Amino acid sequence: MEKKISVAIDGPAAAGKSTVAKIVAGTLNYIYVDTGAMYRALTYKSLSEGVDIGNEIALVHLLNDTVIELKPNDYGQLVFLDNQNVTEEIRNNEVTASVSEVSKHKSIREEMVRRQQLLAKHGGIVMDGRDIGTHVLPAAEVKVFLIASVEERALRRHQENIQKGFSSNLGKLKEEISLRDKLDSEREVAPLRKAHDAIEIDTTSLSVQQVAEKIMSWIEERTR
Ligand code: CDP
Ligand code: CDP
User: Fold this and answer.
1) Is 16 annotated as a binding residue?
2) Is 163 exposed, middle or buried (0-12, 13-18, 19+ CB in 10 A)?
3) What is the ipTM of this complex?
């Protein structure tokens, strides 16, 4: 494949976006960008500094004064916030519970989208999030929308927690994921939506490898 294209992968929490996006980016030797990590990093900073996450103006000031860097490593991507490695911290429960409140603000989204479009300006990118196919990269050559049942998605997060040795409550995970789905898909600005030209893949009963293969064949078809 000669031309370096852009691949947009969207969908709700734990649909498998980042796992397959990393495989696809690795196969194509493309850059991988996890846009959720950018919203999580800002959320982590606002919670650490006691900034009211309902106060859009205060949050924008904070974001304008914040450097978020995504650095690829062998396992995927490290996240740096003002030069500090926060890869683990941004996945904690407090951040997860607040991130949808932060990401609903219009001016926060505008600045994040501006930064994401800069990262993607030369193509050769696989970007995952909620609004990549609809707003960030509307001209992406390949758009994928991943879904899976909420039961399966909660189970995936539960299994990840157990593997890491963390305590985990399946019922609570299901509630947390359902609430975040609702907030992300009902917000006014750039809600979670399938782009009209995206292919939808239900990953509920597929393996990671099967999903990655489907996306790779779609990419080959679109770029032939
Ligand atoms: O990994 P997980 O699916 O749990 O979430 P994430 O991709 O890290 O995204 C965290 C949150 O950031 C989402 O629930 C959205 O509120 C927000 N987000 C967004 O609004 N737009 C994006 N492009 C990416 C994430
Ligand atoms: O990025 P997103 O929140 O959409 O999902 P993720 O962080 O990639 O997490 C998905 C989890 O489900 C990972 O532990 C994967 O190994 C697992 N999984 C998957 O991603 N896709 C499947 N088809 C099956 C399992």
Assistant:
1) yes
2) exposed
3) 0.98
